[in-house]
Amino acid sequence: CEKKIPSSALGSNKTTLYIDTKLICQPSIYNFCINALRCHHLYRHTYIARLSQNSHCYMINFPCVGGIEAEAVMLGQPISMVLPEVVGYKLHGTPEKLITSTDIVLTVTKHLRQVGVVGKFVEFFGPGVLQLSIADRATIANMCPEYGATAAFFPVDDVSIQYLAQTGRDVEKLAYITKYLKSVGMFRDYSDISQDPDFTLVVELDLSTVVPCCSGPKRPQDRIPVSDMKKDFESCLGAKQGFKGFQVAPEGHSAAVPFQFNGKEFTLSHGSVVIAAITSCTNTSNPSVMLGAGLLAKKAIECGLSVKPYIKTSLSPGSGVVTYYLKESGVMDYLFQLGFEVVGYGCMTCIGNSGPLPEPVVEAITQGDLVAAGILSGNRNFEGRVHPNTRANYLASPPLVIAYAIAGTVRIDFETEPIATNSEGKEIFLRDIWPTREEIQAVEKIFVIPSMFKEVYEKIEKVNERWNSLVAPSDKLYTWDHQSTYIKSPPFFSGLTMKLQPPESITDACVLLNLGDSVTTDHISPAGNIARNSTAARYLTNRGLTPRDYNSYGSRRGNDAVMARGTFANIRLFNKFLNKQAPQTIHLPTGETLDVFDAAERYQQSGVPLLVLAGKEYGSGSSRDWAAKGPFLLGIKAVLAESYERIHRSNLVGMGVIPLEYLPGNTADSLGLTGRERYTIIIPKHLTPRMLVDVQLDTGKTFQVRMRFDTDVELAYFHHGGILNYMIRKMSEN
């Protein structure tokens, strides 16, 4: 451990924190790391934890890493990062009785995006934390990737221990945990200000100021108070194409398209809800909002309300325990009557696995060029992620998902307009059916009990007979099935030699795509359905598949041929070369408009290296490894952006793609870059972290950019052509 954190490094201003997942799970080593860092006065609280591969499944108090980093960890490689700043987020006040944890987390997400916490740790403290249950805290911590932090940390307190007891943990172990954490100074009393650490920066939130809200229509950080939802959507309709705009002509705002469904006539217009999903790991593991949704459904049914039959409703809990307590509390039947029946567990609509909409609904949306809406209790609502036919997608609490499903539109002011009129002609308002926190807590106290967790967890390895009956080969080497369209031997190690090649400059590169701000990993490598007119679909058709068997990009991530063709295949990708949304680009030598994969293939055949230009927050969203592997396979050698999300930048490094960053004050526009130039990036023989390099254009212009290899370890990965190549060579040496 002393080799991992040398005293000389601890005394420096810029420290590299090495996290070895095999070491820190040992209490003695963990304790050494914590106290060593404290002794050097870096922070009163330092975070060292085992890492999770998925950006959301880690839930709480875990640093968030990408898939490529996790692959290296599985092969025994520690992860390095520059010791991050720690932002203290002070909570005080008491939430209003109608506020949900989702309202709080969407407020926090917007606030921290404004503060700017990319690459930083966020620790929550202050007396307001005592107002939050463990599930509420987990909901806030679990949205960490959406506000861009590397980790969101709630120190352990009495409420944490009570939760462990409630979920069936061993009493003796809990006593040991409590004693240990108190001994090392990591147990917190949030009401004792003398225990508050010293932070790089402190920001505050008064919980009493939080109001019911949603986020959208295209980003998780774009929070909207529910009272402003109607006005905000109507403003977005006519606004210029962008995060808050659909650029619909004024004369088209009132468009309405009638259609037939199951023998009855309905009408769709801008803002009509066509997908309503209680989904994702964040909210569906939180008893307060799930029981809140159930109680709202109960009151809605008792008032004679219903959901229009063409709206695609679903309920995908994060755990079998959720189904258990929804049934035991008696609310599951009411959810079922409104169409919210359990369709499965885990990632569904949130990641684009909602499945197709009814054909009459799709035809009506297409005919009227309507901005239809999806409402979901998920983490992410980026363009093209939820469904290709829902251009507006809003994140909301599970109770609000049901409310908007009943209303059938997001163009409603719940304060002044009834949510619906029942069969007796009575107007019902949302306030008539909305459960209070006290009502929810009373039900939770009775029905969310330790025995429930024990029973579900004890059966987890036995309950699925089909899974248990699967036969797996015992061979040490994987046997590739060359007929499979799901799993294919990837070309990442083609041409790999034991001898390292010196870094070379990138000469006369063409720009494949000229992109703007907040290009997400969903834009780069979508996980949803494979469109019938896409290059991936053509590949699968040539392999003998029909459209019904295409499945999704997420399901075919084991096939590099599909995933390379799916790179930049998001239908909402806005390419400045085309000045419109499309998964296409211009092949600069010929001027032809082609699908991105086809253009990249032509460049590769001509031996032309490729570059991507982008704005701020490039690679935000999911920690999707294929958002780096895909560009690598397209022949992209570097990305030049104004800023990066931490995980995606790390993933690019892991694949040997150079992340370049404009110097402060510089952008593509300020430098007069059109993207049609040829770019030569001068790579020196001797590289240092975060060094400046020259970019030369065929126009004669030269400017400098920063090479975002932040540590010596990342430079080592680059010299090897990526982290996987590095690990293969390292393993071969042994």
Q: How would you characterize the overall build of this protein?
A:
Its cofactor is [4Fe-4S] cluster. It comes from Scophthalmus maximus (Turbot). This is Aconitate hydratase. GO terms for molecular function: 4 iron, 4 sulfur cluster binding; iron-responsive element binding; metal ion binding. Pfam families: Aconitase, Aconitase_C. This protein has 734 residues and is an alpha/beta fold. It folds into 3 domains: 186 residues, 2-Layer Sandwich (Aconitase, domain 3); 231 residues, Aconitase, domain 3 (2-Layer Sandwich); 187 residues, Aconitase, domain 4 (Alpha-Beta Barrel). Helix content is 31%, strand content 16%. It is built from 26 helices and 27 strands. Strands 17-22-23-24-27-26-25 form a 7-stranded mixed β-barrel. It has a 4-stranded parallel beta sheet with strand order 5-4-3-6, with helices on one face. A hairpin with a 5-residue loop joins strand 15 and strand 16. Helix 4 runs parallel beside helix 5. The chain is globular, with a radius of gyration of 26 Å. The N terminus is likely disordered.
